[in-house]
C-alpha cells in the first residue's frame, strides 16, 4: 500500500466514523439524506478518484477508489458513492468530463427501454428505470437507450422525472424513475456499442459491491468479537466457550476469504479485460455473506435482531448486495461459459492463472 493510499484510507475512515453513524444510517432509512457525509466526501476530493485531472478528476488509481468503497461498506454509508463512481468512470472512459454531482445508474437489466426521439435542438425521452439506487437524491441518471442514431448513452437530469420511492432489504433507496414524453433541450448523447457498455457496468458494479461486502463482513466480525469479549455467561466471557470460539473462527475465515477475493479482483481490475477474477470475487464473497451473517446473528442471539443494535446495518446490506449486479448463480454461469469455450490445453493455464 502506498503512502498516498494510507492517507486516503485514514482520511475516509475518520469521515465515516464521524458522519456515518448509527443515527445517520437509521435516518437514511426514514428518507433523510446524509448531506453532511456526502459533503465531506466531496470536500475532501474523494468523489473523483481514478479519473484523469484533464477530465475533472483528482487522479489516483482504482485501488484508491476501491479502498474508499470498502470503508463505505464497513460503515454502511447511506450514499450513492459506488453509483457515482461507476457513472463517472464510464463517462471518463468515453472521454467525457465529469463533476461532483450525485449520479446514479438505470441498470439495463432492470429498465424498460429508454427511447430518444430527436426534436429541434433537443431530445424527447420516454422510458422507465426500476430499482434505481438513490434516484430521489441524485442530480442525474446515466441510461442506455435507443435513438434514430442507434444505441446511445446519456446522462439525464432528474428534475422532470417522475420518481416513486422504494427500498431494498437494507432500507437503501431503490426508486422507480419514469420519463414520460419529456423534452430535454441540448441533451448530449453518446453513440456506443451497447453490449460493451453493459458488460462494463456489470463488471464494475460487481467489483464495487464485492469490496463493499468485504468491508461489511469485516464490520460484522468486529461486532461479534467485541460482543463475545464483553458479554458473560456462567461467569465467563462468551469467547471462552469452545462452541462460540468455533463460530468466531468460522466467521473470521469467511471474512478473510472475502477480503482476499476482493483484493485479487481489485489487483486485476484495469489491467485486463479478463473478468474471471471479478466473477470469482462475487461468487466467493456472496458465499461468505451467506455463511457469515447467520453465524453473527446466532452468536448475538436476540440482541442482534433488535433494531437498536447495529449488526443489522451490515447483515441486511450483505443480503441485499449479494443480489446486485448478479448473484452467485449468475456469475457461476458466466464463469462456466468461459470454461466451456476453452481448448483442452487452455484449461490448466486458466485455473493456475487465478490468483
From TrEMBL:
The residue range of the signal peptide is none
Q: Which residue ranges does the record assign to the Acyl-CoA dehydrogenase/oxidase N-terminal domain?
A: 2-95
Q: Which domain of life is it from?
A: Bacteria
Limits of the Acyl-CoA dehydrogenase/oxidase C-terminal domain? 203-317
Per UniProt, what is one GO molecular function of this protein? Answer: flavin adenine dinucleotide binding
Asked if Oxidoreductase is a keyword of the record, the answer is: yes
Q: Which UniProt keywords apply?
A: FAD, Flavoprotein, Oxidoreductase
Cofactor list: FAD
Q: Which InterPro entries match?
A: AcylCo_DH-like_C, AcylCo_DH/oxidase_C, AcylCoA_DH/ox_N, AcylCoA_DH/ox_N_sf, AcylCoA_DH/oxidase_NM_dom_sf
Concerning Pfam families, the annotation shows: Acyl-CoA_dh_1 (PF00441), Acyl-CoA_dh_N (PF02771)
Q: Which family does it belong to?
A: Belongs to the acyl-CoA dehydrogenase family.
PANTHER family, alphabetized:
ACYL-COA DEHYDROGENASE, ACYL-COA DEHYDROGENASE FADE28
Return the protein name: Acyl-CoA dehydrogenase domain-containing protein
Amino acid at each position: 500500500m502506498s503512502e498516498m493510499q494510507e492517507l486516503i484510507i485514514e482520511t475516509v475512515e475518520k469521515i465515516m466514523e464521524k458522519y456515518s453513524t448509527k443515527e445517520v444510517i437509521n435516518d437514511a432509512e426514514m428518507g433523510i439524506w446524509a448531506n453532511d457525509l456526502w459533503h465531506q466526501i466531496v470536500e475532501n476530493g474523494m468523489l473523483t478518484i481514478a479519473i484523469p485531472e484533464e477530465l475533472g478528476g483528482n487522479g489516483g488509481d482504482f485501488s484508491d477508489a476501491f479502498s474508499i468503497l470498502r470503508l463505505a461498506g464497513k460503515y454502511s454509508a447511506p450514499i450513492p458513492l459506488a453509483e457515482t463512481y461507476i457513472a463517472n468512470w464510464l463517462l471518463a472512459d468515453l472521454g467525457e468530463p465529469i463533476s461532483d454531482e450525485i449520479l446514479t445508474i438505470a441498470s439495463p437489466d432492470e429498465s424498460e427501454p429508454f427511447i430518444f426521439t430527436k426534436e429541434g435542438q433537443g431530445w424527447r425521452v420516454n422510458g422507465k428505470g426500476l430499482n434505481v439506487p438513490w434516484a430521489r437524491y441524485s442530480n442525474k441518471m446515466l441510461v442506455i437507450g435507443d435513438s434514430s442514431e442507434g444505441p446511445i448513452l446519456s446522462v439525464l437530469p432528474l428534475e422532470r422525472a417522475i420518481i416513486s420511492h422504494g427500498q431494498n432489504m437494507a432500507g437503501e433507496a431503490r426508486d422507480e424513475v419514469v420519463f414520460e414524453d419529456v423534452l430535454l433541450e441540448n441533451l448530449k448523447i453518446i453513440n456506443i456499442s451497447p453490449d460493451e457498455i453493459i458488460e462494463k457496468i456489470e463488471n464494475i458494479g460487481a467489483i464495487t459491491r464485492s469490496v463493499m461486502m468485504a468491508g461489511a463482513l469485516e464490520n460484522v466480525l468486529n461486532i461479534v468479537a467485541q460482543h463475545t469479549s464483553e458479554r458473560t455467561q456462567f461467569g465467563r466471557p462468551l469467547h471462552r466457550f469452545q462452541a462460540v470460539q468455533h463460530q468466531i473462527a468460522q466467521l473470521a475465515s469467511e471474512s478473510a476469504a472475502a477480503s482476499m477475493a476482493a483484493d485479487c479482483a481489485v489487483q486485476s481490475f484495469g489491467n485486463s479485460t479478463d473478468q474471471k477474477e471479478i466473477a470469482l470475487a462475487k461468487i466467493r464473497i456472496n458465499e461468505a455473506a451467506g455463511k457469515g451473517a447467520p453465524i453473527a446473528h446466532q452468536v448475538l442471539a436476540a440482541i442482534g435482531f433488535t433494531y437498536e443494535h447495529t449488526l443489522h446495518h451490515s447483515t441486511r446490506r450483505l443480503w441485499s448486495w449479494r443480489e446486485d449486479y448478479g448473484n452467485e448463480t449468475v456469475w457461476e454461469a458466466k464463469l462456466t461459459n468461459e470454461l466451456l469455450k476453452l481448448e483442452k490445453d487452455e484449461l490448466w493455464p486458466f485455473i493456475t492463472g487465478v490468483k
